[in-house]
Amino acid sequence: MSRKYQGLIVLNTKSLEGSVDDLVASISKEIEAEGVKLDKISQLGRRQFAYESRHLESGHYVNYTFAGTPETISKIQSRLRLNTSVHLQHFQRIA
Question: Of the four listed, 51, 52, 58, 65, which is most buried by Cβ atoms within 10 Å?
Answer without folding.
Answer: 58
